[in-house]
Design brief:
By secondary structure, this protein is α+β, with helices and mostly antiparallel strands. Bound molecules: phenylalanine.
Length: 355
């Protein structure tokens, strides 16, 4: 028994298998019922008690060593197969796993669409600061110093700080008309040196108003305002441009109506409604049964504004309009709560992926 165990102990360390078949052959040779290890156990069963006490432990150890060796060989084979799979079976022509592309913010989508529509009739984008001064947000736009119209837009003023030198009346712009005053002042100079004859700009951007945050109001929102200054600009031009915009944005069947309104910087002023794009003008809960929904303010640039910017109001006239991007996005996507636009909840935002 001693010799047989000794021999098998040597053999087990030499075992090797290049394939699953070879491995199986080894298992049969040593561990199957008629295998060499099992045969030792058959002999062992016939031993007298004292002999059993001697050989039981070494025999069990031998069997365990064989089993362990078989497992080692099986794992070695398996990892060889896996490595082979990596090298040989990768399909390089396969379409890669889809990459999550993210989504564009609905307000960006709508802003881009507004810009795109007006760009087809010659408008280009102008930019300006969000932290502004009274002059550009109010004074040059015909708001008299104590004019109550300033209260129409609840302004955030930047507080004065001890020892910090900055111009008086620093505030967060309440509308992007402030960009228009800056661009018109530049345009006045260009008119003088002959480098421009007309002005057609869009002013997209964030604006701030001191309002309690709710589903229908926020302390900041986004606007796109437009301005056209040239010789002989008429209200009919304004109406035509806005009708074109409404049809492009909300569909060919859209109708518009202009209601008289008031803004310090335009005269005459109007608010524009479109036929409700939800019920098609028949009247529904969204348009409160009227068939119309308001989407923007507009008017002919007040001569005082042109003059304040250095443009001769006897020669030049212009129209302006301004709309809230959230308002347009609400109409397009029927978002009921304004706060969703700024809460950054991906469950909301990812819905706009395919737009
Ligand atoms: N600036 C106005 C607002 O913020 C909108 C507007 C722009 C109205 C141009 C008329 C003309 O409410």
């Amino acid at each position: 028994m001693q010799d047989k165990i000794q021999l098998l102990r040597q053999q087990v360390e030499q075992l090797n298998a290049q394939s699953a078949e070879e491995l199986e052959a080894l298992r049969v040779k040593y561990l199957s019922k008629k295998g060499e290890v099992s045969r030792l156990f058959d002999e062992f069963k016939l031993f007298p008690k004292e002999e059993k006490a001697v050989w039981g432990a070494p025999l069990n150890a031998l069997k365990q060593r064989f089993e362990a060796r078989m497992n080692e060989l099986r794992e070695a084979l398996q990892s060889k197969v896996n490595a082979g799979a990596g090298a040989n079976s990768a399909d390089l022509t396969r379409t890669p796993d889809p990459i999550a592309l993210g989504a564009r913010h609905p307000l960006s989508l709508v802003r881009e669409q507004i810009i795109d529509i007006f760009s087809h009739i010659g408008f280009t984008v102008a930019d300006g600061p969000e932290v502004e001064d009274d002059k550009h947000v109010f004074a040059m736009l015909n708001f008299a110093p104590e004019h109550p119209a300033r209260d129409m837009q609840d302004t955030f003023f930047v507080e004065k700080e001890e020892g910090v030198q900055r111009p008086t009346d620093v505030l967060l712009r309440t509308h992007t008309s402030s960009v228009q005053t800056r661009v018109m002042a530049d345009f006045a100079k260009q008119l003088q040196d002959g480098s421009a004859t007309s002005l057609r700009i869009l002013c997209p951007g964030r604006v701030y108003r001191n309002e309690a945050i709710s589903a229908r109001a926020h302390c900041f929102f986004h606007q796109v305002e437009g301005l056209y200054v040239d010789k002989n600009v008429s209200f009919a031009d304004l109406r035509q441009a806005l009708l074109y915009f409404a049809k492009e944005m909300f569909g060919e069947d859209t109708r518009i109506r202009l209601r008289p309104s008031y803004f310090p910087f335009t005269e005459p002023s109007a608010e524009m409604d479109i036929s409700c794009n939800i019920c098609g003008g028949k009247g529904c809960a969204f348009c409160k049964g009227t068939g119309w929904v308001e989407i923007l303010g507009c008017g002919m640039v007040d001569p005082n504004v042109l003059e304040a910017c250095g443009i001769d109001s006897k020669v030049y006239s212009g129209y302006a309009f301004g709309m809230g991007v959230e308002r347009i996005a609400n109409l397009k996507y029927r978002v009921k709560d304004l706060r969703l636009f700024s809460e950054n909840d991906v469950r909301f935002l990812s819905q706009f992926e395919s737009c």
